[in-house]
Each structure stands twice: as C-alpha cells, then as structure tokens.
Amino acid sequence: MGRRTTWRDCALILLLLLLLPLPCFAWTGQVVHVADGDTITVTRNGERVKVRLYGIDTPEKTQYYGQNAKQFTSAQVMGKKVSVEEVDIDRYGRVVGLVSVGDFVLKRHLVEYGYALLYPQYCRKAFCWNGKPLWMRQGETGEVSGKTRM
Q: Which phi and psi (to 5°) does residue 76 adopt?
C-alpha cells in the first residue's frame, strides 16, 4: 500500500526548496577595454560584452577626477580574468553587474577609495556604505543628480 502525501510532506518540500541556494548567474571573461571608471568590456566566449558596474557612478573621463577613476579601474582589472554577476541590462543594452577578481569586488573598492558615488536607490547590497569620494570638492554634500554618498 502506498503512502499518501500530507500537508507536512508538502511543507517539508517547500522548506527544502527555500533553503537551497539561489542559482548564481555569474560568468567569467577577460577585461579587454576600460571605457571609464564604471564601464568595462569583457570577452565572454569570444564575444565582447560591455559591463556597467552595478549601483555606482564615477565621473566621466572629461570631468574632474574622471581620468583618475578610469586609471584605478584599469589598474585593478585590465587584462585580468574577472567574474561578472549579472544584475540587469540597462537602457543602452549593457550588462549591469558586479565585477570581481577573486575576492576583490571592484565597485566596493571604487567607493572605498573615493572614485565613485553610490546610487542608493539601486544599490541594495551589503557593501553599500558611507564613503566620501576623493573627487568631491570640500563643502559638497554628496548629492549629484539623484546620486548620494550614503
């Protein structure tokens, strides 16, 4: 005689499914170009993919401290194998994601060393914290077109 499925069995199965880790949609590739402090190009299976760093903004190349931000990003990832955890696709068709080299999370260090501001309305990860970018001039509040230092 077969055993009947009870609500306890269903609850146990549901609990097990909830406890399983969520799938990670990360992929690896080599950085072949750094456009600016927050946008890089990574090769993935022979294809070039533009990646915008999740939740941050660095100055444009022509803005104050923009070249510094680009140089910092280049020094950290250019030519290296990186892991890209996709979060979204932006309106320009770029992958928006978290980029890391081993345990080194690029966006975290860009903010920590003062090269980037956070987008608090988008950045909901544990490493979103208060930090004053080096490129902010004395007396500025950190609010720039909806971007803030948290």
A: -85, -35
DSSP β-ladder status, 81-89 and 95-101? antiparallel
94 is catalytic: yes
Q: Write down the catalytic residue from 44, 60, 85, 86.
A: 60
CATH of 25-150, one of 2.130.10.10, 3.30.70.380, 3.10.25.10, 2.40.50.90: 2.40.50.90
- For residues 19 and 39, the answer to whether their CB atoms sit within 8 Å is no
Average pLDDT per run of 10 along the chain, which is 150 residues long? Answer: 62 49 74 97 97 93 94 98 95 95 91 86 61 48 45
d(CA 53, CA 97): 5
